[in-house]
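Inverse folding, one chain.
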Protein backbone atom coordinates (compact mmCIF):
# COMPACT_ATOMS: atom_id res chain seq x y z
CA UNK A 1 0.00 0.00 0.00
CA UNK A 2 1.22 3.56 -0.80
CA UNK A 3 2.10 5.59 2.31
CA UNK A 4 -0.73 7.83 3.48
CA UNK A 5 -0.02 11.56 3.55
CA UNK A 6 -1.12 11.62 7.16
CA UNK A 7 -2.08 9.05 9.77
CA UNK A 8 -4.22 10.20 12.69
CA UNK A 9 -4.26 8.09 15.86
CA UNK A 10 -7.53 8.45 17.78
CA UNK A 11 -10.94 9.45 16.48
CA UNK A 12 -12.26 11.90 19.07
CA UNK A 13 -13.19 15.47 18.18
CA UNK A 14 -9.58 16.50 17.51
CA UNK A 15 -8.71 13.58 15.22
CA UNK A 16 -12.02 13.45 13.36
CA UNK A 17 -12.20 17.18 12.58
CA UNK A 18 -8.56 17.27 11.45
CA UNK A 19 -9.12 14.24 9.20
CA UNK A 20 -12.09 15.98 7.56
CA UNK A 21 -10.23 19.24 7.01
CA UNK A 22 -7.22 17.46 5.44
CA UNK A 23 -9.27 15.12 3.28
CA UNK A 24 -11.25 18.11 1.98
CA UNK A 25 -7.95 19.59 0.78
CA UNK A 26 -7.26 16.40 -1.20
CA UNK A 27 -4.75 14.63 1.08
CA UNK A 28 -4.76 10.87 1.71
CA UNK A 29 -5.66 10.46 5.37
CA UNK A 30 -6.06 7.36 7.54
CA UNK A 31 -7.61 7.50 11.00
CA UNK A 32 -7.25 4.70 13.54
CA UNK A 33 -9.73 4.38 16.41
CA UNK A 34 -9.48 1.57 18.95
CA UNK A 35 -13.25 1.53 19.65
CA UNK A 36 -16.21 0.92 17.33
CA UNK A 37 -18.57 3.86 16.72
CA UNK A 38 -20.95 4.97 18.10
CA UNK A 39 -19.76 4.77 21.69
CA UNK A 40 -20.09 6.74 24.93
CA UNK A 41 -17.29 8.79 26.51
CA UNK A 42 -16.86 10.40 29.91
CA UNK A 43 -17.40 14.09 29.09
CA UNK A 44 -19.71 16.89 30.30
CA UNK A 45 -21.01 17.24 26.71
CA UNK A 46 -21.28 21.04 26.85
CA UNK A 47 -19.57 22.58 23.82
CA UNK A 48 -18.59 26.23 23.96
CA UNK A 49 -20.15 28.34 21.20
CA UNK A 50 -16.72 29.24 19.80
CA UNK A 51 -16.72 25.85 17.96
CA UNK A 52 -20.08 26.30 16.23
CA UNK A 53 -18.79 27.66 12.89
CA UNK A 54 -15.89 25.22 12.72
CA UNK A 55 -18.20 22.24 13.26
CA UNK A 56 -20.40 23.55 10.46
CA UNK A 57 -17.33 23.81 8.21
CA UNK A 58 -16.75 20.10 8.98
CA UNK A 59 -20.14 19.33 7.46
CA UNK A 60 -22.41 19.17 10.53
CA UNK A 61 -25.75 20.81 10.04
CA UNK A 62 -26.04 21.96 13.64
CA UNK A 63 -29.12 24.14 13.06
CA UNK A 64 -31.11 21.10 11.96
CA UNK A 65 -30.25 19.11 15.07
CA UNK A 66 -32.25 21.43 17.37
CA UNK A 67 -29.74 21.14 20.17
CA UNK A 68 -30.25 22.86 23.52
CA UNK A 69 -28.54 26.27 23.60
CA UNK A 70 -27.05 26.97 27.01
CA UNK A 71 -26.54 30.50 28.33
CA UNK A 72 -27.20 30.39 32.08
CA UNK A 73 -24.62 29.18 34.59
CA UNK A 74 -25.44 28.14 38.13
CA UNK A 75 -22.58 27.31 40.51
CA UNK A 76 -23.09 25.97 44.01
CA UNK A 77 -20.69 25.51 46.93
CA UNK A 78 -20.69 22.29 48.97
CA UNK A 79 -22.92 24.03 51.57
CA UNK A 80 -25.59 24.77 48.92
CA UNK A 81 -24.91 28.51 48.62
CA UNK A 82 -25.09 29.33 44.90
CA UNK A 83 -24.71 32.02 42.27
CA UNK A 84 -26.17 32.32 38.79
CA UNK A 85 -24.57 34.05 35.84
CA UNK A 86 -25.49 34.85 32.27
CA UNK A 87 -23.09 33.25 29.76
CA UNK A 88 -22.38 35.13 26.58
CA UNK A 89 -22.13 33.50 24.10
CA UNK A 90 -22.46 30.23 26.15
CA UNK A 91 -22.62 26.89 24.40
CA UNK A 92 -24.76 23.94 23.35
CA UNK A 93 -25.33 20.36 24.49
CA UNK A 94 -24.80 17.19 22.47
CA UNK A 95 -23.65 13.73 23.53
CA UNK A 96 -20.27 12.37 22.43
CA UNK A 97 -22.16 9.27 21.27
CA UNK A 98 -23.93 11.46 18.74
CA UNK A 99 -21.40 14.10 17.69
CA UNK A 100 -18.45 11.72 17.26
CA UNK A 101 -20.64 9.47 15.12
CA UNK A 102 -21.88 12.37 12.97
CA UNK A 103 -18.28 13.46 12.39
CA UNK A 104 -17.23 9.90 11.58
CA UNK A 105 -19.83 9.84 8.81
CA UNK A 106 -18.60 13.19 7.47
CA UNK A 107 -15.01 11.89 7.52
CA UNK A 108 -16.00 8.82 5.53
CA UNK A 109 -17.90 10.99 3.02
CA UNK A 110 -14.77 13.10 2.51
CA UNK A 111 -12.71 9.98 1.74
CA UNK A 112 -10.88 9.48 5.06
CA UNK A 113 -9.81 5.83 5.46
CA UNK A 114 -11.25 5.05 8.88
CA UNK A 115 -10.07 1.94 10.71
CA UNK A 116 -12.35 1.20 13.66
CA UNK A 117 -11.58 -1.32 16.38
CA UNK A 118 -7.95 -0.75 15.44
CA UNK A 119 -5.55 0.04 18.25
CA UNK A 120 -2.19 1.62 17.49
CA UNK A 121 0.59 0.01 19.50
CA UNK A 122 3.68 1.87 18.33
CA UNK A 123 5.04 4.41 15.86
CA UNK A 124 8.57 4.32 14.49
CA UNK A 125 10.16 6.89 12.21
CA UNK A 126 12.90 5.86 9.82
CA UNK A 127 14.43 8.44 7.52
CA UNK A 128 11.41 10.53 6.63
CA UNK A 129 8.77 7.78 6.75
CA UNK A 130 6.68 6.73 9.75
CA UNK A 131 5.50 3.17 10.33
CA UNK A 132 2.40 2.81 12.49
CA UNK A 133 1.96 -0.60 14.15
CA UNK A 134 -1.65 -1.58 14.83
CA UNK A 135 -3.50 -4.72 15.85
CA UNK A 136 -4.67 -4.89 12.20
CA UNK A 137 -1.29 -4.61 10.50
CA UNK A 138 1.32 -1.97 9.82
CA UNK A 139 0.82 1.23 7.81
CA UNK A 140 3.18 3.95 6.63
CA UNK A 141 2.81 7.69 6.20
CA UNK A 142 4.67 10.98 5.81
CA UNK A 143 3.19 12.42 8.99
CA UNK A 144 1.60 11.07 12.19
CA UNK A 145 -0.75 12.93 14.51
CA UNK A 146 -1.37 11.66 18.06
CA UNK A 147 -4.94 12.62 18.94
CA UNK A 148 -5.48 9.69 21.26
CA UNK A 149 -6.86 11.60 24.24
CA UNK A 150 -5.94 12.04 27.90
CA UNK A 151 -4.03 8.87 28.41
CA UNK A 152 -3.18 5.93 26.20
CA UNK A 153 -0.87 2.95 25.81
CA UNK A 154 1.18 5.20 23.50
CA UNK A 155 2.04 7.63 26.31
CA UNK A 156 3.78 4.73 28.03
CA UNK A 157 5.37 3.52 24.81
CA UNK A 158 6.72 7.03 24.11
CA UNK A 159 7.84 7.31 27.79
CA UNK A 160 6.14 10.69 28.05
CA UNK A 161 7.26 12.76 31.00
CA UNK A 162 3.81 13.47 32.46
CA UNK A 163 3.23 9.74 33.01
CA UNK A 164 6.19 9.69 35.38
CA UNK A 165 4.82 12.59 37.55
CA UNK A 166 3.15 10.21 39.98
CA UNK A 167 0.45 11.19 42.51
CA UNK A 168 1.31 14.84 42.96
CA UNK A 169 -0.94 17.89 42.65
CA UNK A 170 -3.34 17.65 39.72
CA UNK A 171 -2.29 14.19 38.65
CA UNK A 172 -4.77 11.57 39.76
CA UNK A 173 -8.45 12.21 39.14
CA UNK A 174 -11.43 10.09 38.16
CA UNK A 175 -14.35 11.09 35.92
CA UNK A 176 -17.88 9.66 36.18
CA UNK A 177 -20.78 10.19 33.76
CA UNK A 178 -24.53 9.46 33.66
CA UNK A 179 -27.22 10.23 31.14
CA UNK A 180 -30.42 11.11 32.98
CA UNK A 181 -33.99 12.21 32.70
CA UNK A 182 -34.06 15.54 34.55
CA UNK A 183 -36.08 18.71 34.85
CA UNK A 184 -33.63 21.57 35.08
CA UNK A 185 -34.12 24.40 32.54
CA UNK A 186 -32.81 23.54 29.06
CA UNK A 187 -30.66 26.67 28.86
CA UNK A 188 -28.86 25.98 32.17
CA UNK A 189 -25.50 24.49 32.90
CA UNK A 190 -25.03 23.78 36.57
CA UNK A 191 -21.75 23.18 38.35
CA UNK A 192 -22.11 21.79 41.87
CA UNK A 193 -19.06 21.56 44.08
CA UNK A 194 -18.37 18.96 46.73
CA UNK A 195 -15.33 18.01 48.77
CA UNK A 196 -12.44 17.53 46.31
CA UNK A 197 -14.55 17.65 43.19
CA UNK A 198 -17.34 19.15 41.13
CA UNK A 199 -20.25 17.90 39.09
CA UNK A 200 -21.73 19.44 35.95
CA UNK A 201 -25.22 18.88 34.60
CA UNK A 202 -26.76 20.20 31.38
CA UNK A 203 -29.14 19.16 28.65
CA UNK A 204 -28.11 17.25 25.52
CA UNK A 205 -30.22 15.93 22.61
CA UNK A 206 -33.55 14.05 22.84
CA UNK A 207 -34.62 15.39 26.25
CA UNK A 208 -31.67 13.77 27.98
CA UNK A 209 -29.27 15.35 30.45
CA UNK A 210 -25.60 14.66 31.01
CA UNK A 211 -24.38 14.58 34.61
CA UNK A 212 -20.64 14.26 34.85
CA UNK A 213 -18.25 14.76 37.73
CA UNK A 214 -14.56 14.87 38.43
CA UNK A 215 -12.99 14.03 41.76
CA UNK A 216 -9.74 12.80 43.22
CA UNK A 217 -8.92 9.10 43.10
CA UNK A 218 -8.30 9.50 46.84
CA UNK A 219 -11.97 10.40 47.41
CA UNK A 220 -12.99 7.08 45.85
CA UNK A 221 -10.33 5.19 47.76
CA UNK A 222 -11.61 6.70 51.03
CA UNK A 223 -15.00 5.19 50.18
CA UNK A 224 -13.76 1.66 49.58
CA UNK A 225 -13.57 2.15 45.82
CA UNK A 226 -17.39 2.22 45.74
CA UNK A 227 -18.92 4.93 43.51
CA UNK A 228 -22.35 4.78 45.16
CA UNK A 229 -20.84 5.00 48.64
CA UNK A 230 -18.73 8.00 47.60
CA UNK A 231 -21.76 9.72 46.06
CA UNK A 232 -23.75 9.16 49.26
CA UNK A 233 -20.99 10.21 51.66
CA UNK A 234 -19.42 13.05 49.69
CA UNK A 235 -21.36 14.37 46.68
CA UNK A 236 -24.75 14.26 48.36
CA UNK A 237 -23.58 16.61 51.11
CA UNK A 238 -24.30 19.26 48.48
CA UNK A 239 -28.12 19.70 48.64
CA UNK A 240 -28.45 20.04 44.84
CA UNK A 241 -26.58 16.81 44.19
CA UNK A 242 -28.50 15.11 46.97
CA UNK A 243 -31.71 15.98 45.15
CA UNK A 244 -30.46 15.06 41.66
CA UNK A 245 -28.76 11.79 42.54
CA UNK A 246 -31.80 10.64 44.50
CA UNK A 247 -34.51 11.77 42.11
CA UNK A 248 -33.27 11.87 38.52
CA UNK A 249 -33.71 8.62 36.63
CA UNK A 250 -30.43 7.27 35.25
CA UNK A 251 -30.52 5.92 31.69
CA UNK A 252 -27.57 3.57 32.30
CA UNK A 253 -27.50 0.70 34.74
CA UNK A 254 -23.97 1.74 35.75
CA UNK A 255 -22.22 5.07 35.20
CA UNK A 256 -19.24 5.33 32.85
CA UNK A 257 -16.01 5.79 34.81
CA UNK A 258 -12.47 6.75 33.82
CA UNK A 259 -9.42 6.95 36.05
CA UNK A 260 -5.89 8.35 36.00
CA UNK A 261 -6.95 11.73 34.64
CA UNK A 262 -3.85 13.92 34.82
CA UNK A 263 -3.61 17.69 34.26
CA UNK A 264 0.19 17.94 34.20
CA UNK A 265 1.90 19.86 31.42
CA UNK A 266 2.48 17.88 28.23
CA UNK A 267 4.57 18.38 25.12
CA UNK A 268 3.01 19.00 21.72
CA UNK A 269 5.42 16.68 19.95
CA UNK A 270 6.93 13.34 20.90
CA UNK A 271 9.47 11.62 18.64
CA UNK A 272 8.16 13.77 15.76
CA UNK A 273 4.57 12.59 16.33
CA UNK A 274 2.53 15.81 16.60
CA UNK A 275 0.09 15.84 19.51
CA UNK A 276 -3.46 17.14 19.22
CA UNK A 277 -6.33 17.62 21.68
CA UNK A 278 -5.99 16.14 25.16
CA UNK A 279 -2.81 14.35 24.08
CA UNK A 280 -1.20 17.80 23.71
CA UNK A 281 -2.55 19.27 26.95
CA UNK A 282 -5.62 18.78 29.10
CA UNK A 283 -7.65 21.71 30.43
CA UNK A 284 -9.54 21.14 33.68
CA UNK A 285 -13.13 20.16 32.79
CA UNK A 286 -14.79 22.85 34.92
CA UNK A 287 -13.80 25.27 32.14
CA UNK A 288 -16.10 23.37 29.74
CA UNK A 289 -13.70 24.01 26.91
CA UNK A 290 -11.57 20.92 26.23
CA UNK A 291 -13.55 19.90 23.15
CA UNK A 292 -13.27 23.39 21.64
CA UNK A 293 -9.54 23.44 22.31
CA UNK A 294 -9.11 20.09 20.56
CA UNK A 295 -11.04 21.34 17.52
CA UNK A 296 -9.31 24.73 17.48
CA UNK A 297 -5.93 22.95 17.45
CA UNK A 298 -7.20 20.72 14.62
CA UNK A 299 -8.00 23.87 12.65
CA UNK A 300 -4.50 25.26 13.30
CA UNK A 301 -2.97 21.98 12.10
CA UNK A 302 -5.21 21.79 9.05
CA UNK A 303 -3.71 25.11 7.93
CA UNK A 304 -0.07 24.17 8.66
CA UNK A 305 0.09 20.53 7.53
CA UNK A 306 -0.57 21.27 3.82
CA UNK A 307 2.58 23.42 3.78
CA UNK A 308 4.59 20.41 4.95
CA UNK A 309 2.88 17.93 2.64
CA UNK A 310 3.57 20.15 -0.36
CA UNK A 311 7.24 20.54 0.65
CA UNK A 312 6.99 24.24 1.49
CA UNK A 313 8.26 23.68 5.05
CA UNK A 314 10.22 20.90 6.79
CA UNK A 315 8.84 18.69 9.56
CA UNK A 316 10.97 20.58 12.09
CA UNK A 317 9.48 23.85 10.94
CA UNK A 318 5.95 22.42 11.08
CA UNK A 319 6.52 21.25 14.64
CA UNK A 320 8.03 24.60 15.61
CA UNK A 321 5.17 26.62 14.11
CA UNK A 322 2.48 24.38 15.61
CA UNK A 323 4.03 24.37 19.09
CA UNK A 324 4.39 28.14 19.03
CA UNK A 325 0.79 28.65 17.90
CA UNK A 326 -0.54 26.04 20.35
CA UNK A 327 1.18 27.69 23.32
CA UNK A 328 0.16 31.21 22.37
CA UNK A 329 -3.47 30.15 21.79
CA UNK A 330 -4.01 27.85 24.78
CA UNK A 331 -1.25 28.61 27.34
CA UNK A 332 -3.27 31.15 29.34
CA UNK A 333 -6.40 28.97 29.34
CA UNK A 334 -4.55 25.96 30.70
CA UNK A 335 -2.87 28.05 33.39
CA UNK A 336 -6.17 29.71 34.39
CA UNK A 337 -7.99 26.36 34.40
CA UNK A 338 -5.44 24.90 36.82
CA UNK A 339 -5.67 27.93 39.12
CA UNK A 340 -9.48 27.87 39.15
CA UNK A 341 -9.53 24.13 39.78
CA UNK A 342 -7.20 24.49 42.76
CA UNK A 343 -9.48 27.19 44.24
CA UNK A 344 -12.49 24.91 43.91
CA UNK A 345 -10.81 21.85 45.38
CA UNK A 346 -11.20 22.73 49.03
CA UNK A 347 -14.57 22.85 50.82
CA UNK A 348 -13.79 25.97 52.85
CA UNK A 349 -12.35 28.00 49.94
CA UNK A 350 -15.19 26.97 47.61
CA UNK A 351 -17.84 28.12 50.08
CA UNK A 352 -15.94 31.39 50.58
CA UNK A 353 -15.36 31.87 46.85
CA UNK A 354 -19.03 31.50 45.91
CA UNK A 355 -20.12 34.04 48.58
CA UNK A 356 -17.38 36.47 47.52
CA UNK A 357 -18.01 36.20 43.75
CA UNK A 358 -21.79 36.47 43.99
CA UNK A 359 -21.98 40.30 44.12
CA UNK A 360 -19.36 40.77 41.36
CA UNK A 361 -20.60 39.38 38.03
CA UNK A 362 -17.77 41.13 36.13
CA UNK A 363 -15.26 38.96 38.04
CA UNK A 364 -17.12 35.83 36.94
CA UNK A 365 -17.05 37.16 33.36
CA UNK A 366 -13.30 37.58 33.65
CA UNK A 367 -12.85 34.01 34.91
CA UNK A 368 -14.97 32.60 32.09
CA UNK A 369 -13.19 34.62 29.40
CA UNK A 370 -9.76 33.61 30.72
CA UNK A 371 -10.60 30.00 29.89
CA UNK A 372 -12.39 30.59 26.56
CA UNK A 373 -11.44 31.94 23.15
CA UNK A 374 -13.07 33.53 20.13
CA UNK A 375 -14.94 31.74 17.39
CA UNK A 376 -12.46 30.04 15.04
C1 LIG B 1 -14.95 14.57 33.55
C2 LIG B 1 -14.71 15.36 32.28
C3 LIG B 1 -15.70 16.23 31.83
C4 LIG B 1 -15.48 16.99 30.67
N1 LIG B 1 -16.46 17.85 30.24
C5 LIG B 1 -16.25 18.63 29.15
C6 LIG B 1 -17.26 19.54 28.68
O1 LIG B 1 -18.38 19.61 29.20
N2 LIG B 1 -16.96 20.32 27.61
C7 LIG B 1 -15.75 20.28 26.96
O2 LIG B 1 -15.55 21.03 25.99
N3 LIG B 1 -14.80 19.40 27.36
C8 LIG B 1 -15.01 18.57 28.43
N4 LIG B 1 -14.05 17.67 28.82
C9 LIG B 1 -12.82 17.56 28.01
C10 LIG B 1 -13.08 16.80 26.71
O3 LIG B 1 -13.72 15.58 26.95
C11 LIG B 1 -11.76 16.55 25.99
O4 LIG B 1 -10.98 17.72 26.01
C12 LIG B 1 -11.99 16.13 24.53
O5 LIG B 1 -12.68 14.92 24.50
C13 LIG B 1 -10.65 15.99 23.81
O6 LIG B 1 -10.82 15.41 22.54
P1 LIG B 1 -9.68 14.50 21.90
O7 LIG B 1 -10.05 14.33 20.48
O8 LIG B 1 -8.35 15.07 22.23
O9 LIG B 1 -9.73 13.14 22.71
P2 LIG B 1 -10.87 12.00 22.87
O10 LIG B 1 -12.22 12.54 22.57
O11 LIG B 1 -10.61 11.42 24.20
O12 LIG B 1 -10.48 10.98 21.72
C14 LIG B 1 -9.36 10.18 21.74
C15 LIG B 1 -9.66 8.89 21.01
O13 LIG B 1 -8.47 8.14 20.84
C16 LIG B 1 -8.77 6.76 20.96
N5 LIG B 1 -7.51 6.06 21.27
C17 LIG B 1 -6.78 6.11 22.41
N6 LIG B 1 -5.66 5.37 22.31
C18 LIG B 1 -5.69 4.83 21.05
C19 LIG B 1 -4.81 3.95 20.33
N7 LIG B 1 -3.68 3.52 20.87
N8 LIG B 1 -5.15 3.58 19.08
C20 LIG B 1 -6.30 4.03 18.50
N9 LIG B 1 -7.17 4.85 19.14
C21 LIG B 1 -6.86 5.27 20.39
C22 LIG B 1 -9.82 6.73 22.07
O14 LIG B 1 -10.61 5.56 22.03
C23 LIG B 1 -10.62 7.99 21.77
O15 LIG B 1 -11.76 7.75 20.97
C24 LIG B 1 -14.25 16.88 29.96
C25 LIG B 1 -13.27 15.99 30.41
C26 LIG B 1 -13.49 15.24 31.55
C27 LIG B 1 -12.41 14.31 32.03
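Residues assigned per position:
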Amino acid sequence: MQPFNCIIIGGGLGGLTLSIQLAKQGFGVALFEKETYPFHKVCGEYIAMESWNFLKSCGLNLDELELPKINQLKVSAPNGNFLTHQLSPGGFGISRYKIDYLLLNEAKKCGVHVFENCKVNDVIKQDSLFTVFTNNGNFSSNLVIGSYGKRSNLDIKFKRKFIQNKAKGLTNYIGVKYHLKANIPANNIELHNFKDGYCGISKIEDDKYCLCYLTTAQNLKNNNGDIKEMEKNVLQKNPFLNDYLNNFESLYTEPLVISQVNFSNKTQNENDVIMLGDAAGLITPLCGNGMSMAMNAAKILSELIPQFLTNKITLDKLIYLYTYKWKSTFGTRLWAGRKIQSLFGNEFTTNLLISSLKPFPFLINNLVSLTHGNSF
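DSSP finds twelve helices and 18 strands in the chain. The mean pLDDT is 94.
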